Amino acid sequence: MAALWRYPVSSMGGERLERMELLASGVLGDRTHGVFHAETGEIARPGRMRQWMALPRASARCAAEGEVEVEVSVDGQDWHGSGSLGPLSDLYGFPASIRRYAAPGEEGPASRYAHAPIHLLTTSALRTLQAAIPGSVLDERRFRPNILLDTPQDMGGIPEYGWIGREFRIGGAVLRGTIPCVRCAFTTLAQPGLPDDREVLRALMQGFDQNLGLYCEVVRPGPILPGDSVALPEAAVA
Predict the structure, then answer these.
(1) Chosen domain end from 70, 100, 130
(2) pTM (2 d.p.)
(3) Which of 15-24, 39-48, 206-215 has the lowest mean pLDDT?
(4) In a domain, 144, yes or no
(5) Mean pLDDT for the stretch of residues 181-199
(6) What is the pLDDT of residues 141-176, one digit of tens each?
(7) Which long-range contacts (CB under 8 A, 24 or more apart) does 135-139 make?
(8) Is residue 109 assigned to a domain?
C-alpha cells in the first residue's frame, strides 16, 4: 500500500490517513461536503467552469474521526471551521460556503460519488501515464484516489482494469472492481506542488480512453492500514 486518502469536501485537497475505515457506503468521512457559492447556491464544479478552478488549491480535513464537521485551510498551516470561510472566499474570488450533501431521502444537493464509493489507483498506472508525458509533474493528488496501491517497478500498464467484476481483499476489507474512472479537466488544475498542465488530460484522451484507475464497491467493510497486505483478485462468488 502506498497511500490512503480521504477528501471530506469534494474538489478540495484531501488528507492522508494512517488508518482508513471502510463502510458499506465508502470511506468514513469521504466527500460528505461540497463547496457552494454562498449567494447563488450554485455548487462548484472545477472541471467545467473557470470560476471554480482554484478549488484544489485549498484543503479540507475532518475535524475529528467520526464527526460530520470539516475544517479547511488555504495554506496547510492555519485551519478554520466551515463557519469561518473568509480566507477561502478570498482565495477563490467568490463568497464560498461549505455544505453537507443531502443524505438519501433528504432534499438538497446529493453527492456525485454514491455510484462509485471507492477509487483505487496503482503506481503502475501512474508510471504508464508518466511515460506518455515525461515533462509533466504527476502524483496521486491529480487523480484523487482513496487507495494508492504500490505495484512492482517492472509491472506496466494499468493492472487494476483486470479486477473489474472481481473481488479482492485489502487489509480487513473486501472490494469489488466496478468500472474504470473517467477523467475530466480537474486532472489539469494547479494545486500545491503541482502546476496547471493541460497535457495531462490530452494524454488521457489520446491514449487511455480518458480513463485512469478503478472505481470499487465495498463487499465487506473493515479497516485498512498503509502497511496492509493486498490479496490478488479472485473471481467473485455468483
Answers:
(1) 100
(2) 0.91
(3) 39-48
(4) yes
(5) 95
(6) 999 999 999 999 888 899 999 999 999 999 999 999
(7) 135/199, 136/197, 136/199, 136/200, 136/203, 137/193, 137/194, 137/195, 137/197, 138/200, 139/193, 139/194
(8) no
Handedness of CA 27, 24, 222, 166 (dihedral sign): negative
Range of the domain at 174: 118-235
Runs of H (alpha helix) within the chain: 86-92, 123-132, 199-207
169 and 92 part of one domain: no
Strand residue runs (E) in the chain: 3-6, 15-16, 20-23, 26-27, 33-37, 59-62, 70-73, 80-81, 96-100, 118-122, 147-149, 166-170, 173-182, 211-220, 222-224, 234-235
Strand-by-strand arrangement of the 59-62 sheet: 59-62, 70-73, 80-81
C-alpha cell at position 75:
495554506
